[in-house]
Amino acid sequence: MGNCCDCVTGFFCRPKNTNVRVSLPAVCFVWQIAMIILFGVFIRYDEESDAHWVEFKREHNITSDIENDFYFRYPSFQDVHVMIFVGFGFLMTFLKRYSFGGVGFNFLIAAFGLQWALLMQGWFHSLDPATGKIYIGVESLINADFCCAGSLIAYGALLGKVSPVQLMVVTLFGVTLFAVEEYIILTLLHCRDAGGSMVIHAFGGYYGLAISWVLYRPNLHQSKRLNGSVYHSDVFAMIGTLFLWMFWPSFNSAITDHGDGQHRAAINTYLALASSVLTTVAISSMSQKTGKLDMVHIQNATLAGGVAMGTAAEFMITPYGSLIVGFCTGIISTFGYLYITPFLEKYLKLQDTCGVHNLHALPGMLGGFIGAIVAAAATESVYSAEGLINVFDFEGSFANRGVGTQGGFQAAGTCVAIAFGLVGGAIVGLILRIPIWGDPADDNCYDDEVYWEVRK
Amino acid sequence: MGNCCDCVTGFFCRPKNTNVRVSLPAVCFVWQIAMIILFGVFIRYDEESDAHWVEFKREHNITSDIENDFYFRYPSFQDVHVMIFVGFGFLMTFLKRYSFGGVGFNFLIAAFGLQWALLMQGWFHSLDPATGKIYIGVESLINADFCCAGSLIAYGALLGKVSPVQLMVVTLFGVTLFAVEEYIILTLLHCRDAGGSMVIHAFGGYYGLAISWVLYRPNLHQSKRLNGSVYHSDVFAMIGTLFLWMFWPSFNSAITDHGDGQHRAAINTYLALASSVLTTVAISSMSQKTGKLDMVHIQNATLAGGVAMGTAAEFMITPYGSLIVGFCTGIISTFGYLYITPFLEKYLKLQDTCGVHNLHALPGMLGGFIGAIVAAAATESVYSAEGLINVFDFEGSFANRGVGTQGGFQAAGTCVAIAFGLVGGAIVGLILRIPIWGDPADDNCYDDEVYWEVRK
Amino acid sequence: MGNCCDCVTGFFCRPKNTNVRVSLPAVCFVWQIAMIILFGVFIRYDEESDAHWVEFKREHNITSDIENDFYFRYPSFQDVHVMIFVGFGFLMTFLKRYSFGGVGFNFLIAAFGLQWALLMQGWFHSLDPATGKIYIGVESLINADFCCAGSLIAYGALLGKVSPVQLMVVTLFGVTLFAVEEYIILTLLHCRDAGGSMVIHAFGGYYGLAISWVLYRPNLHQSKRLNGSVYHSDVFAMIGTLFLWMFWPSFNSAITDHGDGQHRAAINTYLALASSVLTTVAISSMSQKTGKLDMVHIQNATLAGGVAMGTAAEFMITPYGSLIVGFCTGIISTFGYLYITPFLEKYLKLQDTCGVHNLHALPGMLGGFIGAIVAAAATESVYSAEGLINVFDFEGSFANRGVGTQGGFQAAGTCVAIAFGLVGGAIVGLILRIPIWGDPADDNCYDDEVYWEVRK
Q1: Residue B259 is part of a domain; what is its CATH number?
Q2: Can you spell out the DSSP letters for A142-194?
């Protein structure tokens, strides 16, 4: 399987062994059994999914089953679910011989990640101190899918260069870090981040980049022949792009407030995404001598508007404000693919297969700061007094927080997310360098043959 | 088109003629005209889809249009609809030269089957004795899609070996048998089976296997070159897998009780499916010398948790109970692909193209028995007194049935479903051996050229 | 890039230059900036998506957030959104080397069109005279998607023969014309057309055909080698077909009345589509010597029932009436692909790449007339007095209109839609003949290489 004795940092060095016949089943079995035990101890149905709902309804004077949160959120949940599995999965099928790994490993780690997320997020956000239990409903499922998204984004930077066992480790730590940073940002700092510009995209993007940086492969050019698309693999990737693009309004509105909150978040995201498409096309066309478009840009940068609206979508950013966000991030993201990714690889020794820097890290960071600005600019006349309290949740110990302060905390939250991504990713990267995980040799990357039975 | 004079049982024997130019249009036209006439006689809008709804609302003190069942069930209906047409259809595109037949014939027979299902299920379940009419609404559409699923599962066992005319016959009888067994199981035995482990999967699986057994082709090895996938056909099949996997929570919750019933069924199915993915990967990896994964397992066995939760999803099986179900069925299903399918082919002369035994028949049967056990273990403290009545519908003549009895009936229902599948399938198989249906010769199977204009 | 000096009408004639490096970015940037400015001036959130919703609820005695229109329409909106981007997009991937252009340009023009549609439809339908603003909510998003559909249909006739800049022009004028004809048909003539048989399909179809007729290319046979499918491109196209087919019930019901209106429209469309599949298969099989099916028919004509139900879906057409509509239009559409398209090309010099005449123009026109007949035949006994008023909106200045008159107006509306399509298309076609748009030479059509970086 080639040899890697030319690895520069070189503190671990022996021939690569990509046999995962023991490690992959072991990880899957042991962790799944652990999930079952922990679910047995901690996880229960919440009052809206428990058979006691009939009693609960009566006690709370709820007149109709339609008031069950299921009917507010389940359609959005399913859209998010499609984004996680088909959206992220097919977006990563673009490589000519790594489509199985793209969609298949995405499937594996999301299926594990969502279970671990229900536990981690439950412990941090919804553990009932009286009973010691976590009560789950449809909103928990959405949050679990969101939590996975962080690790799936990280996978985008690592695509083709790591083993499935490494990806399980990335996901285990990714979900854990996510739950902690989310607790700090949403609960301690009391930020709003419904669509996760900060907690999902900035965190996930920088997490993946930091891991990839630590795992730098100086001889990756040996696999260059496979690091690209063929005609049909680009069409497959468009399935991912389009499902992400179409359902992003559901992503950003899935857990916002009932009523106007969900409604407004969907509209804003829809507009920002539309705007991104036009500027992506413009920049992509300008970058080629004859104005030809590049599929990489169309597949990725068109989504930047959705990422950047993750925080501000539920705010009164105005429809034209949403268009402006999409306009700018479409440009920035396409420039990222044209100039920043090659720069990072050449000068920072950072190999980012899917360009998650341009689609998630950077637009996510921008989205965090956009959210901060829009929050700081909020006024009672625009939101109404009650609306302001609702949107920013100025209740309890935060009743007296002003919008300026809120803006400051939103900006701080963005920094926390980035810091967690960078530091966490660096540590996880070091763990992944231990030579027991079955990762491929430099001349064997981007190749499904390593981990899949491929029929000729 | 080759000759089949080596057919072992040999009671019909002449050269194959795959020309369906008369039979296929005839079947489509005549049956569609029959549908129109029967719909004219029997099918009407129900009170929620009729223009009299305004009056109905007033008479029944319904305060809002949102109480119309459309808003409770339409999103789930659409998810189920995607599973039937894209899920089943694309799952069957995995063969290298039978993708047109996989997705195209699936489309044809589902479009016919749902019409016939509306009639058959209507006669058995909702014929108004006063008017002699069947009144349909969104729940009828979901049930019609479910009813088709039985026949589409059977198609999985026959994929590549039968003509479209034969498939229409399979569907005509499949839907008919389905409506009868469903009536016996749900109405006479008063079983609960919201996601159809018994009535859909166990029935459909054994129905297809029995047909395939009767249609055994001793010289099928002559088409061996086409009985396999190529790289891109495996990626197409993943579209089917993922849409089935993602929307299975909607499948199992689509017709459960409003409120907690739908909510809980979705959560349980979501968890069982996640768990199946990890154990499928584990067993698949263990089965290869170097730990490589097999796409066949990932495409199919990952779904076993959804099948096995078809009965129990609406019960209080607990979240960890759901994980355990997915854990076990993922293992069993993957073992099925590794050992049972080859065994069935070699010793029972049963050719099962998609391995429906492992994905539907066996997990469906297990799901039926799991449902029986969970029902028998139900208690008032877990469900609440009202909850128990609601979930198991202990009303009217069943008001005094205990949970133990219910468990027994659930188990009996599973056996009824299997019996209907096996006996019905054997009879339909014999009908399909009449040499008038245009089925392909043994050396001509798994080939789209037989029934499709294929451009070079 | 070849020469076109053989163009018959010949009023512009010089060698083709397909370089769009200036024109495409310029159009994208300028128009997107114009959108931002116009949105800034005109577009605001409506009362259901504005943060003042809490106050609005209180003032209007709305007891629950679930009464927000978002929950009535968002699931349908997302289905429509999938149809626009994945449905139309992937349906147009069927050509062997134009899949990027099919799905990519569809993406671009829909993303532009929906923004322009929000403005145009807003000015005509919902401009508040007091404030001079357009207030948007989820129903506006659905209508914007609908409005794009007209231009995307037109793209189907032009596929492979025009530049992206030309498509932007087609969309700019298409959306403009759409908003005007929609205003005339729905507001002035007070027609009902929830699913747009007239305003979307008849208009869009004839619009595209008229453009294509003006852009007739006598030497298009030089690109004949690329005007066809390969095996996998046909499978990709089935993704488009199936998502269109499955979600068409949502399309036709998305903006109908709450309650029975949406419910009935979904049922009727579901049935018509099912019926179309069987007759399409029948005619397709009859048309070949050995009864083989043609993918072109299955991909397209199966959808004709949905198009033809666009007007009548919300009426009490009865379930068997819906089946009859699907039955007939499936036949007519397939015959169109077999005989009318070749006829149009040979004798009318009309090149229609996707056959939009057979799928949209003709079934749309038929749908308009079917709607007229069903409207004229409406009775109080079938609809109830209130139901009749609700369905046909006989209120205000239309309170005394009878159903017969309504039928007449519906028929007139169909003619208006066709006239707008033909005249508008002819004018736009002439504009597109100006040799500044970068369209390909006759021997260079149907080829992604012209506008895309294609990796070998």
Answers
A1: 1.10.3430.10
A2: HHHHHHHHHHHHHHHHHTTSS-HHHHHHHHHHHHHHHHHHHIIIIIIS----T
